[in-house]
Amino acid sequence: MASALLVGCFGSPAADADPxxxxxxxxxxxxxxxxxxxxxxxxxxxxxxxxxAVGHPEACRAAGFELGxxxxxx
Length: 74
Known about the structure:
Blueprint: H1 2-10, H2 39-48, H3 50-55, H4 57-62
């Protein structure tokens, strides 16, 4: 079971797959990766921490955040 959780959190999703946790997920993941966050939480992290926005620009855009733009409402 633990290995399935690790694969789910750290695996490489297909290019067209949604890289975020579903809104009803109940998974504890401590990594700073899009797969470990709800879309809205990742967008907030991108807005709060410029190093995340610079390091993960595609995931931040997929979450609705653009570097240099204010965070859009949920």
